[in-house]
Amino acid sequence: MTARRTSSPTLAISAANASLNEGNGGSTAFTFTVTRTGSTTGASTVSYAVTGSGANPATAADFTGGAFPTGTVSFAAGETNKTITVNVAGDSTVEPGENFAVALS
């Protein structure tokens, strides 16, 4: 009998729409695709967290609900892509573009 070694899944994230205006009200949806490669035979879960980044970082108040978004992404066996949506709150304040990052852990 020969033991077969399977690779652990690898996860990557990419922005579907990386540069949008937040708008003067309501919210604007930024979407990100999480891709799973390697072994996809089992289920897996990954957490994500949004933080301000760059020279002009976003603050918690820039997001719908007034908090940095967090959550989990769950993959069923065989699934390779999932979407995360981050809702940015619009406001009428004139300000420079603010930046944020979504990290997987």
Can you walk me through this structure?
With 105 residues, the chain is an all-beta fold. It has strands spanning 10-15, 27-37, 44-52, 70-75, 81-89, 100-104. The protein has a three-stranded antiparallel β-sheet with strand order 1-2-5, with no helix packed on it. The protein has a three-stranded antiparallel β-sheet with strand order 4-3-6, with no helix packed on it. The model has no long low-confidence stretch (mean pLDDT 88).
Main beta sheet strand tally, sense and closure: 3 strands, antiparallel
What is the CA-based Rg, rounded? Answer: 17 Å
Label the overall shape. Answer: elongated
The N- and C-terminal alpha carbons lie at a distance of 36 Å
The assigned structural class equals: mainly beta
Counting DSSP E segments of at least 2 residues, the number of strands comes to 6
Order of SSEs: EEEEEE
The percent range for helix content is under 10%
Beta-strand proportion:
35-45%
- Order of strands across the biggest sheet? 1-2-5
Unreliable runs: none
* Overall mean pLDDT: 88
Q: Provide a count of the helices.
A: 0
Short description:
The protein is mainly beta. The protein has strands at 10-15, 27-37, 44-52, 70-75, 81-89, 100-104.
